[in-house]
Design goal:
- It comes from Akanthomyces muscarius.
- This protein has 17 helices and 9 strands.
- Strands 1-2-3-4-5-6-7-9 form an 8-stranded antiparallel β-barrel.
- The termini are far apart.
- About 24% of the residues have low confidence.
Length: 586
């Protein structure tokens, strides 16, 4: 009896402890707690009775005798299992709907539910254990990023890049291969190994028709001939189209408008081709506009000078100088005034106005004779025939290295120090046949905006008075004049340096690509002369006539009438740079 009473008291104490534990864990549900405690007590009684008959002593502190919530021996029991059971019964109270317009809400909302987050993460980790390669981590990271889980996405990205820094390239190769745009060639599965080679060989010619050769420019242009100017598509589908008055203009009026734009600014006229395909067709095919541009003095060849028009000091030419140039033209045969003009014994002296009209007529006749014999179209003539540009300046950057002198109070690595010397040559041309030449060490940003006639006159002969002005570099500038060689003209032997044109590229088919410049010298008794060639730098589709190659540089002594050549060891070509402050040129 004593043993039975001890067992009953022990069971009663265990029952009270179990009820107290459940009351602390599940206070709002007393009925469930009592039912669960009674069932647990009955189960405990049966286990104790069986162990007593087996001869073993009960141990209620062991983890095997207690249910899941009472696993810990010290401190209050963990409510993990009870809370997990509660979540399974009433999961809607803890997990709400997600709004994709806002960041994902945190799953753990209280300190009591922290173990819920750890349990769910532990349940989700088995999927991440399958991530082996860097590409797997990268793909999983993209999935997390799409879901809005930026924290896990960032961690996976870091793991992927640690494993393989080129994982992004591998992802593109897997999902976006280079040959994905080509249609796959359908092949029948080979029946044997002997037929696999012929089938692969027969599949190769089938892929050739897919890669058609690119269409030429003329083919693309002909496809735009029937297109019309279309109004802008409305932003809202179903809304009415905005009015487009230029689409209703006939081609005659539209061509007249484009003609005026080309005369005002040929660069803006070319940019019209970017508006629509119809304007692109008109810009490329309307030869009447290009003819006006080529024959006009604004941007065309009527503004070029093929003989001296001014003196070196920008003074008008004398009548004797004009007569000398006429005699040179007649003797060389480069320019012909008439059927038998050279046989006239003493031609009458013309006035300056008549001479200008005569030169203009000669230039126009020469330009007309070059189309289509030399240049097929007027557009090709404007693009390929050498000409001087007035809306900027030509700059030559020269760099060379020379050894310096070692200093006794300065440590230098190796031998003597090295000096890198940089200087610039500037050329700006004007429409009246004059130019400005400058040699200075100032960079272009400090010079190009001051290469004007006004700045040159301000600093000419000035040594100290205006040195504080930003345009002080113009005190070293020289006045000069320029001219191009007539079409079909060849350089006079001895006036160019031997091998000066090496590496300058092919010349113009018209033969008028030689530029002559005469400027003031250092003193009053010297004259400098430069012989250059007009070339194009860059790709064939880039800007043209933007390069000047120096082929000879000479000095002329007016007192002794001797020519001396400057052997330029570090000469570099001139490259054109547009200057907005010049406008369209003076």
């Amino acid at each position: 009896m004593s043993s039975g009473d001890g067992l009953d008291s022990e069971l009663e104490s265990f029952r009270k402890q179990w009820l107290s534990d459940l009351s602390t864990q599940r206070g709002p549900h007393p009925a469930d707690t009592a039912a669960q405690s009674s069932s647990s007590a009955n189960q405990r009684r049966r286990q104790s009775h069986s162990r007593r008959h087996d001869g073993s002593q009960p141990s209620f502190s062991s983890s095997s005798a207690r249910p899941g919530p009472l696993k810990r021996t010290n401190g209050p029991p963990s409510p993990t299992a009870a809370r997990r059971a509660l979540i399974l019964d009433e999961g809607s109270d803890y997990v709400g709907g997600r709004s994709f317009d806002e960041p994902a809400p945190p799953l753990i909302v209280s300190s009591e539910a922290r173990t819920l987050g750890s349990s769910i993460d532990a349940a989700a980790k088995p999927n991440e254990t399958n991530l082996v390669s860097a590409l797997d981590h990268y793909e999983k990271a993209m999935e997390k990023e799409a879901e809005g889980n930026m924290g896990d996405s960032l961690q996976l990205y870091r793991k992927a890049y640690k494993m393989d820094h080129g994982v992004e390239r591998r992802y593109r190769e897997k999902h976006f291969p280079a040959g994905a745009s080509k249609a796959p060639v359908a092949q029948a599965p080979p029946s044997s190994t002997a037929t696999s080679a012929p089938s692969a060989a027969s599949a190769q010619p089938a892929a050739e028709p897919e890669t058609a050769p690119p269409r030429t420019f003329s083919e693309l242009l002909s496809g735009f001939a029937t297109l019309q100017i279309e109004p802008v598509v409305p932003e809202v589908e179903g809304d009415r189209f905005l009015p487009c008055p230029i689409a209703d203009l006939p081609d005659e009026l539209l061509t007249h408008i484009m003609h005026d734009i080309a005369v005002a600014d040929v660069a803006e006229y070319v940019r019209l081709s970017l508006v629509c395909k119809r304007l692109a067709y008109l810009v490329a095919s309307e030869q009447r506009i290009w003819r006006r541009v080529c024959l006009g003095p604004e941007f065309g060849f009527a503004g070029m000078h093929y003989r001296w028009s001014r003196g070196i000091e920008w003074d008008p030419l004398s009548a004797d100088s004009e007569d000398e140039q006429d005699d040179e033209d007649n003797s060389s045969g480069a320019v012909s005034d008439g059927p038998d003009d050279s046989a006239a014994p003493s031609p009458p002296r013309l006035s300056p106005r008549e001479r200008a009209q005569r030169r203009q007529a000669r230039a126009q006749a020469t330009t007309l004779s070059l189309t289509p014999s030399v240049y097929p179209t007027w557009k090709k003539m404007f693009r390929n025939r050498p000409r001087i540009r007035f809306d900027g300046c030509y700059i030559s950057t020269v760099n060379y290295v020379r050894s310096g002198q070692a200093s006794t109070n300065q440590l230098t690595w190796g031998s003597a120090p090295i000096h890198i010397v940089t200087y610039y040559r500037y050329l700006r041309f004007f429409r009246d046949g004059t130019c400005i030449s400058l040699l200075a060490s100032n960079p272009p940003t400090e010079v190009v905006h001051f290469m004007t006639r006004e700045a040159l006159r301000l600093h000419r002969g000035d040594t100290t008075q205006n040195n504080h002005l930003p345009s002080a570099a113009m005190r070293l500038a020289h006045r000069g004049r320029w001219k191009l060689s007539p079409p079909g003209h060849s350089a006079v032997p001895g006036t160019r340096a031997a091998g000066g044109s090496a590496g300058s590229g092919p010349g113009a088919p018209s033969g008028d690509d030689e530029l002559s410049i005469e400027t003031e010298g250092v003193g009053t008794k010297y004259i400098f002369k430069m012989d250059l060639q007009v070339r194009s730098a860059g790709k064939a589709t880039a800007s043209r006539n933007n390069k000047l190659v120096l082929s000879g540089f000479y000095s002329y002594n007016k007192l002794t009438e001797d020519w001396a050549e400057f052997l330029l060891k570090n000469n570099k070509p001139f490259f054109f740079s547009r200057v907005r402050s010049y406008g369209l040129g003076d």
